[in-house]
Amino acid sequence: MPQIIDGKKISQEIKDELKEKVAALKQEGKEAALAVIQVGDDPASGVYVNNKKKACAYIGIRSLSYELPEDTTEQELLDLVETLNRDDSVNGILVQLPLPEHIDEDKVIRTISPQKDVDGFHPENVGRLVIGEKGFVSCTPAGIIQLLKRSGISIEGKHCVVVGRSNIVGKPMALLMLRENATVTIAHSKTVGLKELCRQADILIVAIGKPRFITAEYIKEGAVVIDVGIHREEKIIDGKTVKKLCGDVKYDEVAEHTSAITPVPGGVGPMTIAMLMNNCVETML
């Protein structure tokens, strides 16, 4: 039986550690506040924002919520970000993605001060990661490193294949695995011989954005598989439409060939918010 990597448990451990750290920092007179901006009323974004507020309350930092209407102009959003940049009582700024089509996400990300960019998306923080300097790191890749380490999985010297090349997950993930002394290959949906390449991986990290794309044919026996994908699939069970979450990996088929695997839900997902909280606490130090 494979080791099921429990992201809920590990994220709770991290939040408990952060709660203690925040309490100690408050004794030194240090406070933190996270400003979360949401434009429009996308239901999934609403859930994420609410979870972030709950996590802030749990670890003991202030959460400032800015819920803007769908028709907010790009300039109005940029002006709000600039105001928060200048506000010394605000340590972190997070703009919930995706944004409405009329707003340039890249321009918004670049406007957030790198010192308050707790999502780790600003080009300056990405550049720091590339050259090995200290800076904020994207929360999902940082969370995966913690999942591996806290599950007793050795990274050094292992061959890691990252399937996906997004700026938010794939690219920073590869850089973090390099930092941990893994040998890293980046692959994607256009990679020729993808199955054969994945079968070489000691650690396979999948962020390709296609439900149940990775089957047993892609897996080296005994590999560690980390599934970053999350999809809401509708199934009809007993005449009723049921929404079920799944990942990029065909879990039931793949799990028996692995030494360790993350489930969906309950694997990578909870770690993203835990590492966001970690970045917020870093601003207090």
Describe the structure.
This protein is α/β, with parallel strands linked by helices and 285 residues long. It has two domains: 87 residues, Leucine Dehydrogenase, chain A, domain 1 (Rossmann fold), CATH 3.40.50; 130 residues, Rossmann fold. Helices cover 39% and strands 20% of the residues. The strands form three sheets. It has a six-stranded parallel sheet with strand order 1-11-8-7-5-6. Strands 3-2-4 form a three-stranded parallel sheet, sandwiched between helices. A two-stranded antiparallel sheet has the order 9-10. Strand 2, helix 2 and strand 3 form a beta-alpha-beta unit. 40% of the residues are buried. The mean pLDDT is 95.
Question: Which terms would index this structure?
Answer:
285 residues; alpha/beta; Rossmann fold; three-stranded parallel beta sheet; 10 helices; 39% helix; globular
Number of helices: 10
β-strand number: 11
Name the helicity range.
25-40%
- Give the number of domains: 2
The second-level CATH architecture of the largest domain is 3-Layer(aba) Sandwich
Strand composition percent: 15-25%
Give the CATH class of the largest domain.
Alpha Beta
Rg, nearest Å: 19 Å
Name the CATH superfamily classification of the largest domain. NAD(P)-binding Rossmann-like Domain
Spans of at least 5 consecutive residues with low confidence: none
What order do the helices and strands follow?
Answer: EHEHEHEHHHEHEHEEEEHEH
* Main pleated-sheet profile: 6 strands, parallel
State the end-to-end distance.
42 Å
CATH-defined fold name of the largest domain: Rossmann fold
